[in-house]
Amino acid sequence: LGDRQLPLQVEDQTNWYVYLLYQSKKSSRSVVTYKNVQEIKQVQTMVENNDKYKKLCKLKSISGGGSSDGNTECEGAITFTSWFNDATDDAEVAEIMKEKAVSSNYNRYKVFFDDSYTPQHTSAEWARSYYKFALPINDGKKRYASSNDDFDAQEEYYEDFLKEIYDDIDDLSDNFKDFDIYFYSYNWLVIKYNELMMQDFAFVIGSILFVFTYMMIHTQSIVLPIVGMFQVLAAFPIAFTLYRVIMQVRIFNIMSLLSIFVILGIAADNIFVFMDAWKQSSQFACLRGDLEKRLAYVYRRATRAMLVTTLTTFTAFLATAISDIAPVSAFGIFSANMVMSNYLLVVTFFPCCVILRHKFMENRKAKKASQLPQAAKKQVVEAAVNEKSERQDDQQHLTVNRAGLPESRSPRGSSGIYPEVESDRPDSESEDVDKIATAATASETLGKESRVEKFFDGPFIHMIMKARYFLVAIFLVWFSVATWMATEIRPLSQQEYWFPDDHEVQISYRALDRTYHKGSDDGTIKVRLVYGINGLDRSNVTPYDSTSIGDVDWDVNFDLSPEENQKRLVNICNMVQNSSLVQDHILTCFIQDFKDWVIDQNNGDVNSFPVAASSFTAKMKEWLATDGYDHAAQKRVGYVEDTLRYVYIQTVAVGNNDPYSKMHPRWEHWEDFMDEINAQSPQGLNNGYQTSSRWQWMITERALLRNAFSGMAIAGAISFLVLLLSTLNVIIAFFAVFVIAGIIISVLGIVYCFDWEFGMIVSISVVILIGFSVD
Fold it and tell me: Mean pLDDT throughout 723-749?
């Protein structure tokens, strides 16, 4: 085809097929009745009268092959309704259904109905019709040259058409009492999926409001929660700059945006830790008058805890980033950058805002104090003097012993525990901060405890101390039970679905996948046998560059021109068509059509095929320009710079869109079949391979499962290392990792209890869970 301008609407777009599915409202009654057929015809007429449909439909071929801009006749609906043009009642309709079921063309007819339609049972609960669409188009603004000419603009026009006819069908279907209509196209699935994702973003708003409200209650401020929410938003541009500019990752999809749910929780955690330390610092009189020392105390107390949890969550996302699946890996990288960006903001930007707010509140207090009566001012001055005395008294006793252990020698109050040290080292401001932090950690606070603190400081700790052996035993029992449950979790028994069960797209997709008889145009396991291509060279392409697939590695030994090879490819088509791996002998084979054309050109002389090797290229090009034009338009025969580079034949494999456990054995059978074909083929045709988009998803599933376990191992090991370095205690680090394992096993036990299966969502969540468990 080259780069020349193609005739309008000749390049069949298989992903653009539109299916209209009809289901009887009573399963015991056939959907194919006289009345229903007339109403289904109304739907088809409405679709075909749409102006955009006429600019998008696949046009009928004209005399001599191909299509021209002057040809505007659409192929129309591929449907069963024309069978009943002469029928007048239900009895005649039922009789025609019986005739089709026992016809020699039964395999062609049955694809319009669900798999209950058989020669023995000639009624059907489900029926369908569908439309094909093709490029290039003329949308009234531009006449496009081919499918590669601004494909996005042509696709947008097609999607506008989908929205129009969906609304029209929805309005019309209100008048139909005996059957429901479902509407399906791959692009429609994507449109509805994006709509569903945007609806789910309403939960982001709910999450933000909840976190904001809780932060406002916890901090007793409206300013700091606003700062916290701004901090989450500010982390996005920082993370995106690292992600896109520094790391050169080009993939960015809705999955990456979902990291906002994760970051909301992490940001709130860090802010709560920081604010708790800030509040606790106010309970020491010695810190209240020195903001620098107070902030130093807060940093000593809070930043290490935040760093440990940040590093482990960061690690968990990086463990997800090792995935072989580029979008999942990109999600892990972006989320890891978000986590680290949030940490940098919470230790730099947020403390500045806290100090500014503190200064503002102090100034307000001073202003109010200046407006007090003289007697009240005197009380304020006395309180300030007393507080200064307390600070001096605190600093006099803020020491630690030589062993670094706190000693209780507080001269003031029963609740104050201030360790003292006899040290001949010179004091410094840094040492004061060390002493303050040590003393504050070891001592009871001077202020009043909240109810939550009182609960954990009293009844809860007493319960833990008394029941510690019992609780450990209970945990070990549960851990054992949950471990058994986790081992019983099944891999996917059917393909993972992304819509609720009652969603119209989900009903349509499941019906097409599992209810109807399969045909050559169905989005089932379409298998291609390819010759002339070894694979792709991606050595110069980053895994995260979705705009380039790499360079084609051509099979330089591929040659179809020898007569022996032409005959062999015809035999291969016959082998495939009659194989038990193939659904109902479905096959699209260009070489068979080429053979028939050559024989027809030679007045039925069967010996005229195969053609001589010297004239093969000329004959093949002549056929592709005329009767074989459809094969050229669908790129089943590929010439590059006047050389035949590749060809493929296509069939439909037996089976549904099943999960890895069922799909992998089928793939192995096809691999063995292909090996057998290559072993019996001559030079130039002995390096073919088979491929299918369904095999891609099968490999994706396997990669997700493997990445889940390798991610858990990596994240668990690094978490142990981080905990060991932060606690400097191997026993505590071991116990912590044991508890983390218990958390993960517990969640997997719950997955088992809900009878969920180990799919993509569970595999990603388990890896991320490790980071959260460390918190």
Answer: 87
CB-count exposure of residue 339 (10 Å: 0-12, 13-18, 19+): buried
Which are the contacts of 535, defined by CB distance < 8 A and separation ≥ 6? 553
The dihedral built from the CA positions of residue 337, 339, 341 and 343, taken in this order, carries a sign that is negative
Nearest to 686 by CA among 529, 577, 550, 505: 529
Q: Where are the beta strands (DSSP E) in 27-165?
A: 126-131, 134-135
Q: Please, where are the H alpha helices in 77-150?
A: 90-101, 106-109
Long-range contacts formed by 502-509: CB under 8 A, 24+ apart = 503/192, 503/196, 504/182, 504/183, 505/184, 505/188, 505/189, 505/192, 505/193, 507/182, 508/19, 508/21, 508/182, 508/183, 508/184, 509/184, 509/189
Please enumerate in sequence order all residues whose Cβ is within 8 A of that of 775, keeping only pairs 6 or more positions apart, or say none.
269, 309, 312, 313
Instruction: Provide the H-helix boundaries in 50-89.
Output: 51-56
> pTM for this one?
0.70
Residue 489 has pLDDT above 70, yes or no: yes
DSSP, res 3:
T
Cβ(483)–Cβ(457) under 8 Å?
no
Locate 314 and state its tokens.
Answer: 């960061």
> Any idea which residue has 């023995």 for tokens?
120
What DSSP string runs through 576-640?
Answer: HHT-TTEEEEEEE-HHHHHHHHHHHHTTT-GGG-SPPGGGHHHHHHHHHHTTTHHHHHTTSEEEE
Integer Cα distance of 670 and 668 in angstroms: 5
The two three-digit tokens of residue 214, written as one number: 């809780």
Tell me the C-alpha distance between 592 and 577, whole Å: 12
The first and second tokens of residue 80, run together, are: 């069963």
In the chain, the amino acid numbered 103 is S
Distances 407 to 403, 652, 733 between C-alpha atoms, Å: 10, 80, 27
Q: How far apart are CA 760 and CA 413, in angstroms?
A: 59
- Alpha carbons 739 and 773: distance in angstroms, whole number: 8
Per-residue pLDDT tens for 512-545?
A: 888 998 877 776 788 999 999 999 888 888 777 7
CA atoms within 13 A on the CB side of 190: 11
SS3 431: helix
For 609-618, the CB contacts below 8 A with 24+ separation are 609/566, 610/563, 610/564, 610/566, 610/567, 611/563, 611/566, 612/563, 613/561, 613/562, 613/563, 616/560, 616/561, 616/566, 617/561, 617/642, 617/644
**How many CB atoms are closer than 10 A to CB 429?**
11
Q: What is the pLDDT of residues 180-232, one digit of tens each?
A: 999 999 999 999 988 888 887 777 788 888 888 888 887 788 888 898 888 88
Specify the pLDDT at position 381: 56
- Do 649 and 588 touch, CB atoms closer than 8 A? yes
Instruction: Give 555-613 pLDDT, tens digit per residue.
Output: 999 999 999 999 999 999 999 999 999 988 889 999 999 999 999 999 999 999 999 99
- Give the number of other Cβ atoms within 10 Å of residue 52's Cβ: 18
pLDDT, tens digit, for every residue of 617-645? 999 999 998 888 888 888 899 998 888 99
Please give the Cα distance from 282 to 546 (Å, whole number): 53
- CA distances 79 to 76, 135, 573, Å, are 9, 22, 28
Nearest to 135 by CA among 160, 110, 111, 152: 152
Residue with tokens 């304020």: 380
Q: Residue 500 — φ and ψ, nearest 5°?
A: -60, 150
Q: Measuring CA to CA, which residue among 707, 661, 694, 659 is closest to residue 324?
A: 707
pLDDT reported for residue 775: 72
- Residue of 310, 328, 257, 200 lying closest to 764 (CA atoms): 328
Expressed in percent and rounded to 5, the helix, strand and coil fractions of the chain are: 60, 10, 30
Please name the residue that has the structure tokens 């403390």.
351
